[in-house]
Each structure stands twice: as C-alpha cells, then as structure tokens.
Amino acid sequence: MAQGIRDKVAILGMGCSKFGERWDCGPDDLMLEALSEALADAGIDRDRLEAAWLGIFFDEQSTGKSSLPLAMGLRLANIPVTRVENLCATGTEALRGAAHAVACGACDIALAMGVEKLKDTGYAGLPERTKGTFEDLYLPSSTAPGAFAQLASAYAARHGYSMAELRRAMAHISCKSHDNGARNPKAHLRNRITEEQVLAAPMISYPLGVLDCCGVSDGAACAIVTTPAIARALGKRDLVTIKALQLATSNGVEMGHCSWDGSHTLTTRIAAARAYQEAGISRPAEQIDMIEVHDCFSITELVLMEDLGLSAEGMAPHDVLDGRFDRDGAIPCQIDGGLKCFGHPIGATGLRMAYEVYLQLLGRAGERQLAAPAIGLAHNLGGIPNRNVASIAIFGLTT
Amino acid sequence: MSALTSIVACGSYVPDLRLERACIAQALQWLGPSGGAAVSGARAICNWDEDALTMAVEAARNCLGALRDPEPRVQSVTLASTSLPFADRSNATLVASALGLPESIRTSDRTGSLRSATTALADLALRDAGAAALLVATDARLARPASPQELQFGAGATALLTVRDAHAAGMEPLAVILAAESLAADFVDHYRMNAERFDYALEERWIRDEGIMKLVGESIARALQSAALQPEHVDHLVMSGSRTTVRRLAQATGLCNARLQDDFHAQCGDTGTAHPLLMLAAALEAAKPGERIVLVGFGQGADALVLVAADAAGRAARAPLAERLGSGKPEPYYTRYLAHCGLLEPYFGMRAERDNRTAHTVAWRKRRQTNAFVGGRCRDCGTVQFPKSRVCVNPLCRRTDTQEECPLAATIGRVKTFTEDWQAYSPRPPYVYGNVELESGGNLLMEFTDVDPGELRVGDEVRFVFRVKDIDRLRGFRRYFWKAKKV
Question: Helices A298-307 and A266-279 meet at what angle, rounded to 10?
Fold first, then answer.
C-alpha cells in the first residue's frame, strides 16, 4: 500500500456558515461567510490561496456548474479552481483534492470549499435528480428516505429485531442529535425532542418517520490546508493534521449481486479498513475519541456504528440505547447535531464534519466541548445503500 | 378436414382489483336510485399500472405457459382490443417484444369493434396455413361515471394459441374450429369516436330485437350450415351480453340443448373485446371431448364460430377460471378508481411534476432488457444479473464479455429489503420498492406492484409482471417495465 498522507497535511484554518433555511442568502453569501471565518482563523489573506476545490452537488438546482461560482463569488486571484461532485460525499471530496495537492507539493496553501443552496428549489425535501437515461427505464423513482429505509427492513430481518425494537433505538439516535444540536448556535435545528415524538411522527418512508430524517439546509463550510511546516512557520502551535483520508466507491455489487445483504453499507467497511491502516489505528473503538458520521437518517447512523467497527455485528441497537454514542458516552457521535440537526447542505456536509472535529480537537467547541479528544473521525456517505461513495477522514491533534 | 385450425392453448388474465358495484352505487346515490340487480357483484378493474397492453402480455404468458412440449415457434401475434394505449405504434409488436418472441414474426393490431377478436379468430381458422398464431384479446374500457357502462364493464384479457393441424404438429388440441361465418352490417348499437373517452350507447331493446336477434341469429345459422350441424347438436353457447337476450337468442335459433356459458357478471364484468374469448376459455374447461361449442362475437355485424372440444379440453390444470375470477382484492375507494382511470386528478404533490421523458434511443438499444426482462448470465461464474452488462457483477469474478442472455420474466425472486414510501410520487401511494434477489445470485432494486401497506415481508417470494412504469403527460407517452408481485 502507498505511504498515504498521514500527517503530511495540516489544517490552517476552517470556517462554517450558519446552516439552516437561509432565505436571506445565496450561495456566494454562504461561501463568503465560511471563507471569512477560515481566513481569520488561518491568519492569512485570501491571495495566499494557491489553488481551490469547490464541492457542489445540485449544480442544476442552485449554484451553477464548474468552478466559477467560487472563483467569481469570492473574486479569487485567478487561481486554479476545480469543481468536484461525488454525491453527498462532495465536501470530503473537495478536502481530498486540496489535501492531495498540498501533500504532493503541488501547492503550499489550498482551499477546500463546499456549499449547497437547497432552499431555492420550492421543495420541502430534496429535489429529484435526473437519472441516467437507461436507469430511468428500469430503476424505481426512489427518494432518499425510501432508499435508506431499505436498511431497516434488512437489518431487522438479519439480526432478528422487531421493527418496534429497532425503531426505539433509531428514535434514541434522533433525540441524542437534537440534544446536541440544541447546544450548537450554528445548527439548523435546535429544538429538543422526545422518543415518543419521534415514534409518533408522520411516516415518510416505512419505517422512517419525519423525525428520523435529517434537515434540508443551506450552508457552506471550508478548510484551508497546508503542510505542518508552513503552519508552524505561520505561528500555529496546536496542529490538527490529517491522519487518513480514504474513499471507497461502489462497483455495482450492492445493486446487482446478492452477496450484499442490504443491512449495511459495504463501502464504509472498506474505506474504514483503509483509513484505520493509514492512520495506524488497530482498535478503533478504543482509539477514536469522537465521530461525525453520515446520519442522513437515523437507521443510517445505527448501521454505521457496526460498519465503522465501533459496535459488534447486530449489537448497535443495544449500544445506542445504552448511550455509548451520546455526548457523555464512550464515543460521542454527532456532538454538533450531525446532518440531523446541524443540517445537510450536501456539498458542505463533509467539510462541516471536519470543522466540528477540528474545533473539538483544538478545544474551541464552546458549550458542547468534549473533554480533550485527540483523535476524531468524519464519515461521509454519498448515494444510497445500493450504491454509494463512502469517505473517511481521520484527524489528530499534534501539540 | 385434416388441416383444420385448432386451439392448442389458452390463458386468461383478469386484474386483482375488484370494485363492488354497490360501492359505485353508494358513491353516486345522490344522483338517484340505480338499477337493482345490476348493482350486485364486482367489476374487475385495472391497477394504475395496468392497461389493455399489460393485461394482454399476462394473458399471453399464461397461454404459452400452459403449453406442454413441444413449444411451437409462434409466427404471428394478433392483438384485438378497442382500448389499446397506442393509436399509432404497434401494440401487438410491443406485446411480442415483452414476450421475448423473435423479431422475425408478423404482428397486427385488430381494433375498431368489440367483435375484432372473434373476427381475428375466424381469419386464423380460414386463412392462416401452417402457422402457430397467438391471438390476444384485451380490453380496459373507460366508462363515464354514473353511466350504465360503469356498472357493466370489467377489465381482462384472453390469449389463444392456434395451429393448423395440431396432430401433425405433435400437439394435443383443446378444440378444433369447424366453421366460421361473419356478417358485416353497420348497426350502431354503441360507438366511440376517435379521441373520445366514453362510449355512447343506444337503446337496449332496439339492439336486442333489430341487432342481436337478427344479425347474430343469421350468423349462427350460416355457421351451423357450414359445419353441417343441426342446432340441437350444439352443447355450449358462448356469447356475452344480457343473459335474457342470449337465452331468447338460443331459443330462436333452435339451440335447445346448448348450455349458456356464464358471463362472469358477478366476478368481473364485461371485458369487451376479450369477453367472448374469456368465456370460451371457461367453456373449454367445462366441455367434454366431442362437445360442440358456438362462439359469438357481436358489433357492426356478427361472427359465429363452431368448435368441437378435443381430447385436451376439460383438463384445467389450475383452479377453474370462475374460481380464479372470484378471488380478487376489493378496491374500497371509488375515488381512487376514478383517479386510476384519469377521471379524477387529485393533487399528488410537487414530485408528480417530474419530467418522464423517455430516451427512445436507449429504449431501442436495450429493448431485450426492458421489454422482455432479459438479463445476463455469466458463463464463467453463473451469476445472473440485471441489467446484462459487459463486466460481471460478481465481486469474485468481474470478467469481461462473459454474459449470455438470461430471460428473467418467468423466474422467482425473493424480497431482500423494501420500503413503503409516502414521499415519492405514486398514483397509488405508498410507492413500494426494494431489493429483490434474483435466482442464481443477482439482485435488482425494483418496484413492487399490487401490494398494500403492511402486506410485504422480507423473504417473500415474488414473480415478475409487465406493467406501466412511468407516464409522460407532457408528451403523451407511457413506458413499461417489469415489477415484482408477491406470489
């Protein structure tokens, strides 16, 4: 295996807009909000940026194609900007581009920006995407909740849970994220909810009720990355470095072959194995202090605990109900509220996760600060369980 | 006489859904009392994703599936109906394509009259030489709400496979056609102009006295003469329409020993063009070898065919048709029935605004896959997969260009995952879909049909049916694909 980029890239600064229904903002406003914070944090002028990666998912719906929305919106100095798109893992994909450029020495300081303006579509949920023309002829016109709800039916059948038992654990996940989101001033949803409310909420796609689903939000998040040496030269003392940044992309097995049982995300398991190896982690449940995972739906977060090796097979519902992933549990998950409550502006999500890990490692997370975490993991999943892109970024603190 | 045309197989299809006539009457009682006895029983109605074409495919599959070896090479497909979805695009060709038949066949749509099925059968009896011909009759006629037709019409299809000289072809006939006589007369008992949705019907008593009694009577007399039979030799009369009228006709034509085939008014209603053949299918189940059957079609004239039941008649492999027709699933909502027919346009939310444009270039390229549900089977590892692709999906194989065609339509699948999606657009919410395990290793994310919330379980067996997949309202088009249906 290649050497990887462990500790070759440090985060110089990060920024994140307030997420939510930003009726007052367009995508350029959101990007400026995030970048201003990141530049102030990094202590550099934007003309020090040598290259940038822009992540947008719904280009047709909101921001526009190509790299131009970032370069023009922020009036960058004609630097190379690359637009990336990899479904809901788009934000991490932007970070990956910038990190690789720095790690290989192609540039000293690079920007990764993710943005999504979802609330200009006239829809309450996600707009429907255009599918491939052949797929239109045979695949169902599924929705995101419907595609992820499949996990629940398969998980319950595979591990012998009744749907009522599984839904109780799922409800705990949603309540926990709402508790966390309530402590986060930038979060989209800041209300606390009860498990009874989750279970009684209107059904969206069996067994997912509306409170099993994440928010549909506007927002932007960004990272400025450089080498540890340059970061130190610029006066940074505590450094957050990238320990691992791995991606696994479905090759059609989940869509077309019965070796996948439908109850887990295959790519997450593959990306996790690679990332743990790159980061030198052998006992993830003991070595990782906090996680941000792709909790687009409550059931997704539940199965991910097993996919990431943090719960034993079939035991995630018990671990969830035991509070293992609560803010005061062994491995706090979604301490910022997650997709569920911080919100899910698709292109920004992977970078928003990195932002929270970064703040936590540096001890800058305010009211929701955890006790001295040193290793944090961000898991970002694009697509649906049947085919997707899973990315895992692991960050560590070097003092 | 050795080269007479025989019916060697028949198959019927009637949708699951049943709309009780009492349900219609109750919804419309503000209009005044509706006609007593006619309000009993139930009509077979299409699910939103069924039409004359999908029913035809299912009837034809049942027909061909009933065949024992040797399976003859079908050389023509004739589709008879007054409610085909396409006015200009060969519906019969799409049926043939869905059946996976080779493209080197002759196809034709026969339409314009409720007797187009019996006329087509007469043509096969008189003109076709040597060919194994598939005749499918199907109808899903719209009825104006509160009209008498709304209480009468049912939906259904029946397919017959005919061959000339069955014994020479090594096949056991169900029945042999002894004679076929037709009469064309511009008698307008009802009509429907092009682009109109509903029939306009004339007075029943006039239709009976001037139309049926005279025109059908003459056809029957000529057919019996042609078959050299006396009226009292006829054992079964197969004719749709009012039972009173048919009884009176049997009397008038001297068919004193003929049993009148039940018309399934109670179980499914009048399936239009398909009805004479649907009733014939039932008659063939009941007939003893050697019994004579008169089959009648009426509409701007009349057809009368005389058949004799052969040795294979009366051997219904499955439950009798009457029994199967009686086991439907109630549609409790009259308004949902109206919506499925397009007679009520409820607001389905913004997701229903989706543009369903079809890429016809792709549909043509992939027609074996999307029309006939033909997947691939890897020669090296045996994995069955859909769609067929250049590279095998089995993670332990992944070899290139190893797949041969693998027809999936007749296979059984198993539900691996599912959801009932209330957010996605479906004309019959919720939209139910999930992963189906195909036999021999494949998996397909697909839609389930004919299923209500709470009915599906992981592990259920499913079979595959040809249905409407999407409707393109902008361009007036509908496309079809296969869906999974719980066994």
Answer: 50
Range of the domain at B99: 5-340
pTM: 0.94
pLDDT in tens, B369-426: 999 999 999 999 999 999 999 999 999 999 999 999 999 999 999 999 999 999 999 9
Query: Are the C-beta atoms of residues B163 and B131 closer than 8 Å to each other?
Result: yes
A160: alpha, beta or left, given left = phi > 0 and alpha = psi -120 to 50?
left
Chain B residues closer than 8 Å to A203 by CB: 420, 422
Give the nearest chain A residue to B421 (CA atoms): A205
Structural domain includes residue B347:
no
- Taking a contact as any Cβ pair under 8 Å apart, which residues of chain B between 309 and 348 contact chain A? none
Q: How many domains does chain B have?
A: 2
- Identify whether B153 is part of a domain: yes
Q: What confidence tens digit (pLDDT) does each residue in A318-357 have?
A: 999 999 999 999 999 999 999 999 999 999 999 999 999 9
Write out the two tokens for B227. Answer: 């078959």
Range of the domain at A271: 142-214+239-398
If one counts the domains in chain A, the total is 2
B13, B129: one domain: yes
From the candidates A16, A88, A214, A341, which is the catalytic residue? A88
Q: Which of B443, B464, B479, B482 to mutate to test the interface with A (most CBs of A within 10 A)?
A: B443
What's the gap in Å between the CA of A37 and the closest CA on chain B? 37
Residues in chain A: 399
Beta strands (DSSP E) in B359-415 are: 374-378, 384-385, 403-407, 413-415
Same domain, A256 and A226: no
The mean pLDDT value for A80-92 works out to 97
**Residue A137 placed within a domain:** no
- Find the residue in B nearest to A261 (Cα): B416
Query: CA torsion angle for A360, A366, A370, A372 (degrees, to 10)?
Result: 60
Question: Contact A143/B363, CB-based, under 8 Å?
Answer: no
Among B293, B310, B340, the domain boundary falls at: B340
Q: For residue B252, give the CATH number of its domain.
A: 3.40.47.10
- Of B307, B340, B373, the one marking the end of a domain is B340
